Amino acid sequence: MMSAFDAFLCGLVYFFAIGNLPFVGLWSLQRPLVCGFIVGIILGDPLKGAMIGATINLVYLGFISAGGSMPADMALAGILGTAFAITGNLDATTALSLAVPIGLLGTIVWYGRMTLDPIFVHAADRYIEREEYHKIWRANVLFPQLMCFVMTVIPCGLAAYYGSAYILNFINLLSGNILTIFKVIGQMMPALGIGITLQYIFKGDARVFFFFGFVLAVYSKLSLLPLGVIAAIIAIIYVQLQPATKGGTLSE
Question: Which spans are transmembrane here (predicted)?
Answer without folding.
Answer: 7-23, 59-86, 92-112, 181-202, 209-239
